[in-house]
Write a structure and sequence with these properties.
The protein has 132 residues and is α+β, with helices and mostly antiparallel strands. The protein has one domain. The protein is 62% helix and 12% strand. Strands 1-2 form a two-stranded antiparallel sheet. Helix 1 packs parallel to helix 4, helix 3 crosses helix 4 and helix 4 packs across helix 5. It is flat. It starts with 9 loop residues before the first helix and ends in a 5-residue tail after the last strand. The relative contact order is 0.07.
């Protein structure tokens, strides 16, 4: 009695597994844009992530996009928490919001740079909290 066995090339199996792992880590980056945590949750090592990122330009671009989506999610959650604290009359949250969103309460931070070139001299003054 003979059995016909179909041999699946090892390369194909590895590529399928890596494809699933890449998809898993990209999904995790959209939820938590920290590479170490995303890799742990996806069950891969950071070295694999960086190897894929260096070897596969499409993966690298998709990973950057996934991290951007994750950062936007964290920003939204953070703003929501900050607003909740403001509603609860938390003085630190109120002060933080005003210092970063209302020109009247912003602390002015200046940097002064003086330069001389031969007989010429000039000075640059930059206000860091000036609205763009």
């Amino acid at each position: 009695m003979t059995t016909n066995m179909i041999t699946i090339p090892k390369r194909s199996t590895i590529e399928k597994r890596q494809g699933k792992q890449k998809k898993a880590v990209l999904e995790q980056l959209e939820k938590m844009p920290i590479i170490q945590i995303a890799c742990e949750r996806a069950g891969i090592g950071r070295a694999s992530f960086y190897r894929w990122k260096n070897d596969d330009q499409d993966f690298a671009e998709t990973a950057e996009n996934s991290m951007s989506v994750g950062e936007q999610l964290i920003n939204d959650m953070s703003e929501s928490q900050l607003i909740s604290l403001i509603k609860d009359k938390h003085a630190g949250a109120i002060r933080y919001w005003l210092e970063h969103h209302h020109p009247k309460y912003m602390h002015n931070s200046f940097q002064r740079i003086s330069m001389q070139n031969g007989n010429s001299s000039f000075e640059i003054i930059t206000n860091y909290n000036q609205p763009l």
